[in-house]
Amino acid sequence: MTKQVYIIPGYRASSTNHWFPWLKKRLLADGVQADILNMPNPLQPRLEDRLDTLSFYQHTLHENTYLVAHSLGCPAILRFLEHIQLRKQLGGIILVSGFAKSLPTLKILDEFTQGSFDHQKIIESAKHRAVIASKDDQIVPFSWSKDLAQQIDAALYEVQHGGHFLENEGFTSLPIVYDVLTSYFSKETR
Predict the structure, then answer these.
(1) InterPro entries this protein is in (predicted)?
(2) pLDDT score at 89
(3) Order of strands, sheet of 33-36, starting from the edge strand that comes earlier in the sequence
(4) Lowest CB count within 10 Å: 6, 59, 96, 181, which one?
(5) For residue range 81-111, what is the model confidence (pLDDT) as tens digits?
(6) Residue 124 belongs to what domain range?
(7) Could you confirm whether 71 is annotated as catalytic?
(8) CA 106: distance to chain centroid?
(9) Is 183 in the active site?
């Protein structure tokens, strides 16, 4: 079955931002089915809208599906995995600058992180789990991404100087995401 990757942007981002187009292009060149899912109202995100959008793709998910989320895309994916019944465990989830608690500087996003997450259900929903975080992220504290990795039993990949992995910080490509994904792909083909 063909490998499939869905890239989920964060707050104020769309399919044309940051390193998403680069990752999609790299994966397509490898013969991997890759899509960047535009989320509704990126400037005024609502959890319900994002869950509805993600649910639209629910029937396409299978054991060779990988979800790559950035920033607000991470709690959105976690909430989605909590709320759905998967027919099969996903291949994996990769959370870039992931967080699972309220960001003091971005109260507008609080509804995504209100209440605790069902960590066990999230763990069971994806065979491979990774969190990629930068030590100098000014938006999501590194320690929060580290906590998230522990809560969902994910591998933590630390980047020394990545900021929030935004294009205005120079991130129009992000090879570490590609490398982690392809390492998971190769484990599946053995």
Answers:
(1) AB_hydrolase_fold, RBBP9/YdeN
(2) 96
(3) 33-36, 4-8, 65-70, 90-96, 126-134, 155-159
(4) 59
(5) 999 999 899 999 999 999 999 998 899 999 9
(6) 4-187
(7) yes
(8) 19
(9) no
Catalytic residue (one of 18, 70, 97, 137): 137
Say how far apart CA 72 and CA 43 lie, in whole Å.
11
| Nearby residues of 29 by Cβ (< 8 Å), 6 or more positions away | none
Given the structure tokens 């484990």, which residue do they identify? 187
164 noted as active-site residue: yes
Q: Which sign does the torsion angle of CA 146, 91, 3, 16 carry?
A: negative
Q: Which two tokens stand for residue 92?
A: 């994996």
Question: pTM of the prediction?
Answer: 0.97
Question: Of 71, 97, 125, 134, which is the active-site residue?
Answer: 71
End-to-end CA distance of the chain: 14
Q: How many domains is the chain built from? A: 1
**What is the number of H-type helices and E-type strands within the chain?**
6, 6
User: What CATH number does residue 31 fall under?
Assistant: 3.40.50.1820
